[in-house]
Write a structure and sequence with these properties.
The complex is a heterodimer of chains A (about 290) and B (about 260). With about 290 residues, chain A is mostly helical. Chain A contains 11 helices and 2 strands; from the N terminus they run ααααββααααααα. The chains are: A mainly alpha (about 290), B alpha/beta (about 260).
């Protein structure tokens, strides 16, 4: 039983990071139909910048996080301006190719600047694990989970109630109509990329605190693909549920099935579930169905 | 208020859609722009509201003025802020947003946040149906309800000039009359100037003060509505009436068409 709960907690923590990264993914897809293959690199850059500030310049952790997020807003805006704006009116596939190029570029730069060794954050969270009855959980895990959930709630409220959030959803629905109402679609897309970069960076910092950072962390960008497809590419709640589901699946499959099959199930399990879900619900769990009035 | 002078618009650098289009919309009036399919009515509206660019259209000649200021070539958002709001053909409500969220999105360009709540209620006064449906997903509304929402959403921006593109499209005759009654009421209550594009000439002329008739990218006829209604050609081609005010028989129409084709 303990083993099971341990796995569940691990799964939830990893899942919350997936959910954050997936959120960025979904936002970009919703607002511009683009699948952003550079999402994992945003995570990488965010993590390294926070690390550098903490290690090299001795900035206090929370201040470093805040500065990193500020930087990521700029990064998102810059990417929108330099990479995406020139593609307005071009086919979506060209834009997707551009994001692949962007991901390679960013990963290359990260390796040039920070090298490929795994680095760890200095102990920011206390090392003493927290006991919850029989269960022993490291405090990093709990902090990560709490922070991720907080962010997800904040973003959900933002999209539901703030006028900017409503307008972002409106532009995602019908760009032309949004344009006719004086909504600046360019600005909306820029905000989207900034948010995507920010949530990815938070994910990166959390993961960095748990496992340490090295450039392979960027592959989480691809791991998140089953998450968003499972949840429905254009659904924000879907990204969140999908993130936790995949996180749990990975942890449980890794804990119970890997010893039996000699490893590897952990990586495959999410995709197996993905295929089954898509057979039953082609839009994903929460994907928006195309509304057709009869 | 709004002046189009000799406007020429080309799509994709090749297709000349507007060929010297001139039109005047006086303040506080309802102006109807009529014409058959492909005459360039929608293009005219898009030229005014700045939506041409996103469809690869561009001005090659002429200009558009709003209160004496040139607006041709401006961005759509700037034009909306100046007080021109287009209700696009086919309603185009935000399907996955609720009715109320659609209205809030319509007020995006407004700076006076506190009044927005009041205006939402104002829209519900005009369209009581929408109040009942306010937390419904807009995509599941009926066509008429969506059209009401589209017009309500336009009201939220408090435009000085409202461009309506075929508000009657796909609606039952009774509903069409209802919608046009409300359009007229908006014009009278709020003094909103209205330029309405229609295929349904009857209903459009019933609320308009002035009418323009378009063919092949230019205006071929214009005048006060009373005069237009008495015009022989308008009666024949747009109101579907024969000489004596009787409906034409289908046989005559067929006969006429045959002759026209042979001529060309």
């Amino acid at each position: 039983m303990d083993f099971f709960l341990q796995l569940v907690i691990t799964g939830l923590v990893v899942g919350s990071v997936y959910a954050l990264v997936a959120l960025g993914f979904v936002l970009i897809y919703k607002s511009s139909d683009v699948i952003n293959f550079a999402q994992g690199e945003f995570l990488l850059v965010g993590a390294y910048i926070a690390l550098t500030m903490v290690m090299l310049y001795n900035v206090p952790f929370l201040a470093a996080v805040a500065l990193t997020l500020g930087f990521c807003v700029l990064l998102g805006l810059l990417v929108e301006r330099l990479v995406l704006r020139p593609f307005i009116g071009e086919p979506v596939i060209s834009v997707i190719m551009a994001t692949i190029g962007l991901s390679l570029l960013m990963r290359g730069l990260v390796q040039m600047i920070w090298g490929t060794d795994t680095r760890t954050f200095p102990g920011i969270f206390s090392d003493t694990p927290i006991r919850m009855g029989e269960l022993v959980v490291s405090s990093v895990y709990l902090w990560s989970l709490a922070l991720a959930i907080l962010l997800l709630v904040v973003f959900n409220l933002f999209f539901k109630y703030s006028s900017t959030g409503i307008v972002m959803r409106a532009a995602a629905d019908d760009q032309m109509a949004a344009l006719s109402m004086g909504i600046s679609v360019k600005r909306i897309v820029a905000i989207t990329w900034a948010i995507a970069a920010v949530v990815a960076a938070v994910g990166g910092i959390l993961l960095g605190n748990i496992n340490g950072i090295n450039p392979t962390l960027a592959y989480i960008g691809l791991l998140v693909l089953p998450v968003v497809i499972l949840g429905g590419l254009d659904s924000i709640p879907g990204a969140i549920v999908g993130g936790f589901t995949i996180g749990l699946l990975e942890a449980l499959a890794g804990g119970y099935l890997d010893p039996i099959f000699g490893g590897g199930v952990k990586e495959v399990a999410p995709f197996v579930v993905l295929v089954i879900v898509l057979m039953i619900r082609p839009y994903g769990l929460f994907g928006k169905e195309i509304i057709e009035r009869v | 208020m709004l002046v189009l002078n000799n406007v020429e618009v080309v799509y994709d650098h090749v297709i000349l859609v507007l060929k010297g289009m001139s039109l005047v919309v006086p303040e506080g009036k309802v102006v109807a722009l009529l014409g058959s399919n492909g005459a360039g009515k929608t293009t005219t509206l898009k030229a005014i509201s700045g939506l041409l660019k996103s469809e690869n259209g561009e001005f090659t000649d002429g200009y558009i003025e709003f209160y004496g200021e040139r607006i041709s070539g401006m961005e759509a958002e700037t034009i909306v802020r100046k007080g021109i709001f287009q209700v696009m053909e086919g309603r185009r409500v935000f399907e996955h947003l609720t009715v109320e969220e659609n209205l809030i999105a319509g007020a995006y360009t407004r700076r006076d946040r506190p009044n927005i709540r009041k205006d939402i209620d104002g829209v519900y006064e005009y369209f009581p149906r929408l109040r009942q449906l306010k937390s419904r997903t807009a995509g599941y509304l009926s066509g008429g309800e969506q059209q009401m929402l589209a017009i309500g959403r336009a009201l939220m921006a408090r435009p000085k000039l409202m461009l309506l593109d075929e508000p009657s499209l796909g609606l039952a005759p009774l509903l069409v009359r209802e919608i046009f009654r409300i359009i007229k009421q908006i014009n009278e209550d709020q003094g909103t100037t209205i330029l309405v594009v229609e295929q349904n000439a009857n209903i459009a002329l019933s609320i308009a003060d002035y009418g323009y008739i378009m063919e092949n990218g230019r205006i071929v006829l214009d005048g006060e509505v009373d005069k237009l209604i008495d015009n022989e050609d308008v009666r024949e081609f747009y109101l579907g009436m024969g000489d004596l005010g009787t409906r034409k028989s289908y046989r005559d129409v067929k006969h006429y068409k045959r002759r026209k084709r042979w001529l060309s």
